[in-house]
Amino acid sequence: MSITAQAVVERMQKKFGPGWMPTPVDAFMAGNPDTDVKGIVTTFAPSLEVLRKAVASGHNLIISRESPYWARTNAWGGGTQFQGLPSNWTNGQDFLRQEPGAPETDPVYKAKRDYIAANNLVVYRFFANWNAQTVDYQLKGLAKALDWESHYKPSGGVPWGKNNGFFELQPATLKETAMHIKKTLKMTSIRIGGDPNTVVHKAALSHGMYWLPDIQKLYAEPGVDLLVMGEPYWENEIGLYSFDVADSGQKKGYIVLGQEVSEEPGMGEMAAWIKSCIAEVPVEHITAGEPCWMPY
Amino acid sequence: MAATQLAAAQKGKLTAGEVVDRIKSHLGIPWNPKTFRDTFKVGGPDTPVTGIATSFGGNFRVWKLADEAGLNMLVVHEPTYYSDADVIDWVKDDPMYMWKLDWATRHNIVEWRIHDHWHAHKPDGIQTGWDNAIGWNKYLIEGSLTRWKLPPTTLGELAKYVAKTLNSRSVRVIGDPNLPVTDFARGGHGLAQNVAAIQTADAILVSEAREFDSFEYVRDTVLSGEKKGAIFTSHQTGEDEGMRYFAEWSQPFLPEVPVKFIPTTDEYWTV
């Protein structure tokens, strides 16, 4: 039995159901969609290392959260708040603006493009529709990775829905909690804010980039004394929100995991989701791994 | 002593509006009347000024330290209400906003932001302050303000130096710690700036960039076999010192009141 990359995507769209949105983000980013698929890899970022591992495993379709050529393309980044901006707000901090990526003459671009071509790889980005599902599988994956599933205490609404990640934990100090999270997720670059001695009873869990409405909702949940998050969408904007919460006398700490650490477990959920509709070829999750380390 | 007496005599007379006018007249560049960033964020021009605190952020900790030091005017580089344009609509029902505004009113705080025009100052005031703090001006490559020829070091040693000198616990690095570095360049927030910078250097220094593009691009650069690396700092660590320089720069033309730098600091710690 053979199946093309295009057919894999159509199968996924069918499983997804009638709500599938045509977006410029959920699209083939590299390779030929008519390629016969030998095996599928899900990953946060299709780095050269992930591509090499895919090739070593004999897999040739990579389904990733981020783009192989780094730049996000446009408004489908997942933002929620663009009402009420001043009419002259034209600064580059507007992620609606297309961020130019590497030029085609760039050596890193060429190395990646050539590797993809030489190994007949296909890269499909699955992001906006995956995020639009009622159940937030990225949240669920991260909760599982933290071994927090049994501590889940949703705040009304849809269980495992967006911004509904609340967990009642065994009380421990912020420092102890951070050390435990770092160890459990095998991290190298955890960042923490707030008084290390704050006792954590209830955590709000988020992933990926977060915006002001996200952080407002998570902090407003009664009893929350810890926010665990992916990447602040601008440290000079909502990054300062966490500062203010911690410094205004509220005993609430925050832990910033980083984008990859917070999103990678969800890509394991995606592999399982794809497996449930693709029987012809193996489906495997390959982690991109934390990109950075700290000099401490 | 004479200066102190003068300050005491005029204390309470200088208004926030006069402070802003004086800053504008000393910048040496035309004022952009369309700026939405460089405006009053708390209070207004009529408030009498007892002293000025400069900082990166308009966050509460900075206000509190300013108030304790008897400085009621804040001149900050970044937002107060958590969005670049300080859109009140997004925070008007947020208890944090109401609490902060109430605190500011009770403590007679007036706050004005200088972002666009401090960057537009020649040379860029934020960059000048950072350069003064890091101490590499003697290594600048001739004709460039963003590239250095450093005494031979390694990426790991350089990262330690940056973290220690700028007092940050959140420095992150991509690349081999033993990578030899002499050509070092400043990148930027955006992917395109970092793509351009890394090709000119062994390693680059980046103040807040997105992880899904800049971090992944540097990761792929290293994986492609290029001997390169990058050091990433928080936005605070990358720009705080620029407001220390603002205090030094503005004190001479604001002799009536003290102008003090209060570091926003990078509040992160790590385990």
In short:
The complex is a heterodimer of chains A (296) and B (271). Chain A is α/β, with parallel strands linked by helices and 296 residues long.
Describe the structure.
The complex is a heterodimer of chains A (296) and B (271). Chain A has 296 residues and is α/β, with parallel strands linked by helices. Chain A folds into two domains: 5-132 and 266-285, NIF3 (NGG1p interacting factor 3)-like (Udp-n-acetylmuramoylalanyl-d-glutamate--2,6- Diaminopimelate Ligase, Chain: A, domain 1), CATH 3.40.1390.30; 137-257, 3-Layer(aba) Sandwich (Udp-n-acetylmuramoylalanyl-d-glutamate--2,6- Diaminopimelate Ligase, Chain: A, domain 1). In chain A, 33% of the residues lie in helices and 17% in strands. Chain A contains nine helices and twelve strands. In chain A, β2 (40-43), α2 (48-56) and β3 form a beta-alpha-beta unit. The longest helix of chain A has 17 residues, at 259-275. Chain B is of the alpha/beta class and 271 residues long. Chain B has two domains: 2-123 and 239-261, 3-Layer(aba) Sandwich (Udp-n-acetylmuramoylalanyl-d-glutamate--2,6- Diaminopimelate Ligase, Chain: A, domain 1), CATH 3.40.1390; 136-236, 3-Layer(aba) Sandwich (Udp-n-acetylmuramoylalanyl-d-glutamate--2,6- Diaminopimelate Ligase, Chain: A, domain 1). Chain B has ten helices and ten strands. Chain B has helices spanning 2-10, 16-27, 60-68, 95-106, 116-120, 125-134, 155-165, 191-198, 211-223, 235-250; strands at 40-42, 52-55, 73-76, 110-113, 147-154, 172-174, 180-186, 203-207, 229-233, 259-261. Chain B has a five-stranded mixed sheet, sandwiched between helices. Chain B has a five-stranded mixed sheet with strand order 5-7-8-9-6, sandwiched between helices. The longest helix of chain B has 16 residues, at 235-250. At the A-B interface, α3, α6, β6, α7 and α8 of A face α3, α4, α7, β6 and α8 of B.
